[in-house]
Amino acid sequence: MKNVFIIGSKGIPAKYGGFETFVEYLTKRKVSENIIYHVSCLGENNDEFYYNNARCFNVKVPNVGSAKAVLYDLMSLQECIRYIKEKNLTNSIVYILACRIGPFFSFYKKQLEKMGVQVFVNPDGHEWKRSKWNYWIKRYWKFSERLMVKHADLLVCDSRGIESYIQDEYSHYHPKTTFIAYGADVKESLLADDDQKLVEWYRQHQVKPFEYYLIVGRFVPENNYELMIREFMASNSKKDLVIISNVEQNAFYQQLLERTKFDRDPRIKFVGTVYDQELLKKIREQAYGYLHGHEVGGTNPSLLEALASTRINLLLDVVFNKEVGADGALYFTKEQGSLSQLINMADQYTQEEIELLGAKAKNRIIKEYSWDKIVSDYEQLFLDS
After folding, report:
1. What pLDDT does residue 132 have?
2. What's the sign of the alpha-carbon dihedral 123, 125, 128, 130?
3. Could you tell me which residues come within 8 angstroms of residue 373 by beta carbon, excluding any fewer than 6 positions away?
4. pLDDT tens for residues 5-59?
5. Which of 36, 98, 203, 222 is the most buried if burial means most Cβ atoms within 10 Å?
């Protein structure tokens, strides 16, 4: 029996972002009877419970500000070591999601080595590039990443671009890496076209089906909102630009408003967040097109969901996006006029061209990014290690 301890996500049931959704599917879609998952969960107590047949253990962490995520990972790792010792487990793997605990990693790694436990790390994306961090935190992230790459038994990269970066940047450590992507589903939304929730959402935001371009993602500068809004405003499109993101009390929103004056263009519509997953999927399906400006990090969950649901996808031309979209998407650069001209072109597509591009996008997900494939790849990795 292989015991796999997963730390670094906020836990399951998934309420948050990419890592949580990944752990949700990994446990829910488990096929092998020879794997037991132990999942660390950020909790208000230290209780233990079972979910998706995985043993979940809560870790209560004091509120220490921005260091809370680091402390959570360390406390989770300590709990894994305690449990493995107490139960005298053999054949165990600890899988750490993200590179937050580099300066402390070798200390725990030595203990785990003595116990015969392998440690895998998912390096995630370029966390040290994110604009929300100040200079010193960025320095910490980069330093932490280096030490985790140095000491990990295996780095599981969800993007070939990230895998190449790890191999190039840290070649002197001769890191052992493998590639297993993130996943998505191509099942259609359960909501009907005349579902009251959907109709009300369209009415509330004065939007019509297939008459809008869509952006879904964290409202941060590195996702190139300013570029996309400016270019959309410069386009001749008669459609709306619907932006689903949390912009409340966001200084970046005010900066963007001052710089672009988007409030003068009635096509630009910030509509807040949509937590109902079936409604969000339906909104994706009924978008005319999807704009994706992410450039930091690996395989992005919102991009996979767009390719699985939306027929025309316009992506920023960076290695991570091209790797995922391939011939199932259209690409724009940061050059002035690149995206606006692409939007003008996409607006003229025939129904046949739209359907063909949508089919190619879905095919990318089915062949390379389906959850069944991802779960199978992970189970094979864990069982063979």
Report:
1. 64
2. negative
3. 183
4. 999 999 999 876 789 989 999 999 999 999 999 999 999 999 999 999 999 999 9
5. 98
**Distance of alpha carbon 176 from alpha carbon 163, whole angstroms:** 10
Q: What is the pTM of this model?
A: 0.84
Q: Which residues contact 73 (CB under 8 A, 6 or more apart)?
A: 7, 8, 96, 98, 100, 101
Give the 3-state secondary structure of residue 18.
Answer: helix
* Helix, strand, or coil (residue 153): coil
Structure tokens at 90: 């053999």
User: Rounded to whole angstroms, how far apart are CA atoms 29 and 31?
Assistant: 6
Extract the tokens encoding 310.
């939306």
Q: Kindly state the DSSP code that residue 3 receives in the 8-state scheme.
A: E
Classify residue 283 as exposed, middle or buried by CB count within 10 Å of its CB (0-12, 13-18, 19+): buried
Residue 35 forms beta bridges with which residues?
2
Q: For the chain, which residues score pLDDT lower than 70?
A: 16, 125-133, 249, 297
- Residues 324 and 141: their CA atoms lie apart, in Å, by 26
Q: How far apart are CA 53 and CA 67, in angstroms?
A: 31
As a whole number of Å, the end-to-end CA separation of the chain is: 12
How far from the centroid of its chain's Cα atoms is residue 19's Cα?
7
Report whether 63 contacts 82 (CB < 8 A).
no
The answer to whether 155 touches 342, Cβ cutoff 8 Å, is no
Q: Is 283 helix (H, G, I), strand (E, B) or coil?
A: helix
Residue with tokens 């996409």: 346
**317/305 Cα distance (integer angstroms):** 18
Identify the H or E element spanning 304.
helix 301-309
Question: 């500000």: which residue's tokens?
Answer: 65
Contacts of 169 (CB under 8 A, 6+ apart): none
Amino acid, res. 168: D
Peptide bond into 13 cis (omega under 30): yes
Tokens representing residue 292 in the block: 């994706």
Q: Which helix (H) or strand (E) holds 312?
A: strand 312-316
**Token duo for residue 84:** 């493995």
* CA pair distance 220, 225, nearest whole angstrom: 8
